[in-house]
Design a protein that fits this description.
- The protein is mainly alpha-helical and 170 residues long.
- 72% of the residues lie in helices and 0% in strands.
- It is built from eight helices and no strands.
- Helix 4 runs antiparallel to helix 8 and helix 5 runs parallel beside helix 8.
Length: 170
């Protein structure tokens, strides 16, 4: 703890922690956008590992928990990430538009590739192993959550890793 923070009241410390999240700036229409390198990458890795561990087996609870944790973290990426939302009232310059376009194009390419390969593998493996309807239904539901995670965290991950870090980045 620094010397300055030892003399702050608990309310001043709580105020500082709330300001750090960027939520007050969102309320004032001037959000603090910063790269979220590790949170977006961790969300993607958790979702992929959770899906792979649970592939074709509806009873493995920890794989599903990892997938849902990655999905939950990914849902916050568009709010705090470096890409300004499509419908926001924020001022968007040419750099923001270019970054957003490239990030979503890369994410959509990845999403399409994962969707095609994942569907082909799921159909092929389910036919070879003789999955029942319940296993196939659960696997396809979890696959939808994996794709939603890639959609939410993918653009943020790309945009975060292509920007140069600043001093206060994660």
């Amino acid at each position: 703890m620094s010397h300055e923070s030892r003399h702050k009241s608990i309310l001043a410390l709580l105020d500082s922690s709330v300001r750090w999240t960027g939520i007050p700036d969102l309320a004032e229409w001037r959000p603090r956008r910063r790269p979220l390198r590790w949170p977006s990458l961790i969300a993607l890795v958790l979702a992929v590992v959770g899906f792979a561990a649970d592939f074709g087996q509806p009873k493995i609870w920890w794989g599903y928990a990892l997938l849902m944790l990655g999905f939950s973290v990914a849902n916050f990426m568009p709010i705090w990430g470096p890409i300004k939302p499509w419908t926001s009232q924020e001022r968007v310059d040419e750099f923001d538009r270019t970054l957003r376009d490239r990030a979503f194009l890369v994410a959509f390419r990845t999403l399409g590739l994962v969707a095609v390969i994942g569907l082909l593998l799921t159909v092929g493996i389910s036919a070879l192993q003789g999955w029942d309807a319940d296993a196939l239904r659960w696997t396809m539901t979890k696959f939808a959550f994996l794709l939603a995670t890639i959609y939410s965290a993918g653009p943020t991950c790309y945009a975060s890793w292509t920007q140069l870090p600043t001093g206060d980045d994660d």
